[in-house]
Write the structure tokens for this entry.
Amino acid sequence: MFESLQEKLEGALKRFRGQSVISEENVSEALKEIRRALLEADVNLNVVKKFVDDVREKAIGTEVKGKLMPDQLIVKIVHDELVELLGSKTAELTLSPQPPTIIMVAGLQGSGKTTFCAKLARNLRKKGRQPLLVACDVHRPAAILQLQQLAQQVKIPVYTEDTKDAVSIAKNALAYSKKFGRDIIIVDTAGRLTIDEEMMQEVRNIYDAVKPTETLFVCDAMIGQDAVTTAKAFHDLLSLTGIVLTKLDGDTRGGAALSVLNVVGKPIKFVGTGEKLEALEPFHPERIASRILGMGDILTLVEKAEQQIDEEQAKKLEEKIRKNQFTFVDFLDQLKTIQKMGSLKDLLGLIPGMDKQLRNVNIDDKAFKKVEAMILSMTLQERNQPKIINGSRRQRIARGSGTTVQDVNRLLKQFEEMQKMMKMVTQNKRSRFLPKLPGFSK
Amino acid sequence: MGFFSKLKEKFTQQVDKVTEIVSEKVNSVVEKAAETLKIDRLKDGLAKTRKSFVDKFKMVLGAGRKIDEKLLDEIEEILITADIGVNTTEEIIEKVRKRVKKEGYEDAEDVYKLLKEEIHEILLKSPSANNDAIYHIDESDKPKVIMVIGVNGVGKTTTIGKLAYNYKKAGKEVLIGAADTFRAAANEQLEIWAERAGVGIIQQLQGADPAAVAFDTLKSAIANKKDVVIIDTAGRLHNKANLMAELEKISRVMKKLKPTAPDEVFLVLDATTGQNAINQAKEFMKSAPISGIVLTKLDGTAKGGVVIPIANELKIPVRYIGVGEKIDDLQLFDPSYFIEALFGLDDEVDEEDEGKME
């Protein structure tokens, strides 16, 4: 399912290795694969068609030069084109020069508006602002309470009224914010279907009443072909200024991002990446482009790693690997670092080319615990010199860690293999596959 | 036996026969009426969906057009825009292409019939065809435990409110377990729905162990001889191993009280979801024995076409569809009705729709 586009293209373009120019003939099969990949990623059909035509135009006649193979070249063209469409740089929130800045949030039911509002408020307060949340979802049961409870977690005030009139709540909140010196107000609205005329009129009335600085369309990253219809309806009614893509911590390819952008023509300003209130990130076009194409997201991975590994540590490690002194002590450190970075499965998904081999392997983060337990059951001497671990030591380690001797054997064997691999990697023999991590045989 | 008694006997037989025929007739009329009513309701809910679908088809399959590759391409595109997905769409088109060749169809209009049949077959192959017994509960098997799962924001809580209402209306005693102890105000939201449906609810404080809530609910249901237990769970993305393990735990703990629990696991899918719904179904299947899908928000412009590849690839039946925000807006899914509503070209209804849309 998640076969990367690059892999598919390799097949489609194999015959053309060695040809120096991309032609109509050798590109047609590849374009079919690109079309398919985009559709599987839920990019809207019309957007796909236009996109493929653009790529065809750009690709034909391009000279194949340097180290790039034709397939790689096409992926590059596609990727660049995607990045350009997605907006070449990160878009910031517009703040009104005259406070309060009014941010209005709208979208379908269940897209994640209320959670986003609380995240945004938290984010803005961190930057020294004084946000006020306004609960205008008077329709869904307990929606106001949900916003209040979320806001309480981050200690941000919520303006509510005991009425069914969302427009008057919004109006009064505006007056309230001026009186109490809140410089940003975030208006949460009820989820609504675009064919519900009454509800669409309500959201329009709220819009007219508060005249927002920013009107953000909150869109579930998992949405399918219908994204275009929905986004268009909201945009026609509210002239949106930005898009928020939620639930991007799932495994969706997120092709909707492209569809919605295409319709609204306004940047994606935030992405939601988790249920916790700190899980709000700026949008990085590069990453979504890679994700849509199933190419992994090496940038996010690098960034995640950067956050966790300090450089000095990394240098020392490299040195050790080069000298073949990588021991269980280092390995334990590594494990801890990886664990800090998040779930292993998520991480593997971020590495280009890794998808196919590992996607089907059900990696259980609990496996870490097992490996950790085994290493912790070794003496310091054993950790530094695994070679001394003989039969009776193995038995002791197994007992100590609640595992079996077979588990210990496997770990030792794989550790040895890993050492070899690492040596190879550092000697610049490029291996296509990442070394097998000990303890994760399958 | 005397002449009169013979006559009487004959007469009685005749009367019985007439009664039988009449009652049969009446029954069939009633059934038909009920059926029409059901279709109309569904058609109503799917009016928008069907409208765009049918319009597109009408455009493509216009009178006098012959079947050719270009036509099939256009149909392929319509199917893709309905979120049916590339793989299943290609499969359907391939089947249609073969049949056109083998059975010698020429007119574009015939393709419509073929498509309908092929999609129908996909939906029939999945056990969703058998939805009749859903409100029946064996006395010996009480309480029937239904667990409702899905990603965030698909409409689990709303579905549970409607489901509880449906069971209540079918004369069953329902108890809801509020095992979404994570999301803010999930308890209160479910409480409101339970109140609307007029059924009981068991809950604990936010942050409590969901498995404990499920256990308590089932225990109380057994003690109070309830017919149905419906367990709400927190929304979770299917790629989060720890949250999926939590689902397994909920099932495991309930089994201590009732070995077959959960008797049904409904996966709730949002009709606007694209191809990721297939991943969702696949991943959730690993942690819970999904017995059916509830397709929500079908009253919007989304077509919910993604259930077709799910039925095709995973053989999971669709049980219910949600077509509105009111408490009685959860309907039993019936493939025939679904396709009828999706493809129905009946002009009368079309005019009605047009009136509504303008």
